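Morning - pyridoxal-5'-phosphate inputs below, output right after.
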Amino acid sequence: MIPTILPSYARAPLSFAKGEGSWLIEDDGRRFLDLGAGIAVNSLGHAHPKLVAVVHEQATKLWHTSNLYNIPSQQALADKLVEHTFADTVFFANSGTEAVECMIKMARKYQSHIGQPERTKIITFDDSFHGRTIGALSAARNTAMTDGFGPMLEGFAKVPRDDLAAVEAQIDGQTAAILVEPVQGEGGINVADDPFLKGLRALCEHNGLLLLMDEVQCGNGRTGRLYAHEWSGVTPDIMATAKGLGGGFPIGACLATERAASGMGPGSHGSTFGGNPLACAVACAVIDTITAPGFLDEVNRKAGLFRQKLEGLVASHPDVFTTVRGQGLMLGLVCKVPVMDLVNAGYDAQVLSVPAANNVLRLIPPLTISEDEIAQGVARLDKAANAAALQPPSSAKEQP
Ligand SMILES: *Cc1c(COP(=O)(O)O)cnc(C)c1O
């Protein structure tokens, strides 16, 4: 009989009753160090006092009104995002994939609005992930995720990562935009280097294309800057973000320049729930915290420490790990043993991590993780690595 919850997830046999900072706690009191943060969502950890207070306060006042009316906390959040980024304007959604969907629509609308409706094609990259709507699946074209759900949408062309010549070869009179993750998360923590992003920007300038960035996972302080593209100095025309933005409350956002958004007048896009008062109040508190003086300096300091310890871990387990990669607190360990063996051994060692494609173990802890917790996390990963090294090869299981 089919489970009452649609069986679309392969879940670990764990369930948590409570969260405290970097820790998740089971009913029986067992404490797990959370180096996954709900897939880069709990940016300020669990039950952050400031976020708890904001939710309490807003919950007693007003949850939802719809976008038929002005929403002061939505206005405040948009103003903060515009103040701190390249963007002039923001659309609010409820998830990453919806933010990406808005970005795709906006890019096509821009070209149509300036009199080039034939420009609909968007160039995307191998190993990318943009979400699970048909639009986002069509952009990433990962056959494991699209199989049986076709037909996918036309108008996307996927090329190898870090290959400017391949991008250039795809540009023609039908091309509208290039869509890139500055750091790929699901794809295995792949950092796009500065020359590549600069090259994409130049190709966009020369060919009248928009540069779209998916910062759903790498945004909101994750890499040590508010948005990951800031490291390169390259700015997008449109950017999607979500995950860490609400600190655990669902919210997504599509940020754009005035020019890129010029086709999006009244009626062009919408969402019933998007940008509701509760979500925006929480996200305002998240953005205030991340942009407070010194917060990102601390993220970078702790990220350096974490990375250094992980280099040590890799060096002491040459049979388990190949290398460390990533940026800020978005780190990946490339594994030699099946990554799920490590994730599962981590459960026994009471440390949570997240698998990514290409056999990478993803470490994306709360940005508020302490030095001591980093040390404990690496000690637990060391234990997990010892256990995984002992697994017979026949136990090799592919990640779901
Ligand atoms: C998670 C993710 C998405 C999809 O976000 P959802 O909130 O799951 O819809 C899109 N793009 C990237 C880069 C992501 O990591």
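Note: The mean pLDDT is 97.

O.
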